[in-house]
Amino acid sequence: MKYLYLDCLLQSDSNSRYLRCVVDTGFDGDLLINAKVAQSLKLIPIPGKASNTILGDGKAILTRLANVIFELPEIAASYNVVTVILPQEIDCILGTAFLEKICRSNKSNLVVNYMTNSLDFVSMI
Fold first, then answer.
1. pTM
2. Going from the N-terminus, what domains does the chain have, and what CATH number goes with each?
């Protein structure tokens, strides 16, 4: 199975990590990261905050939330994001809500590059 992805940098107060984030157009949220990535970034869950996340198979699970800085080197932009921490295989999943925020804030369109299985941001100006 081929995935579309964006390369990004995730940062916490004490650590950073480059990741290839899978783009999931079926996920209408912002950002999901797996527990191992959260641990490597030394993310601290937001006290008293949790999210009831519904998985693709319809199963609902309670997940932790944490703040992370998400950077896209290709457009020189960074975003403070509340991410959902999930026990999943894929390191990082970008949802449509976050992609829309990126496009709006940079006045850009998202273009699928089928040759490289990646997404590119193209300026609308």
1. 0.79
2. 5-123 (2.40.70.10)
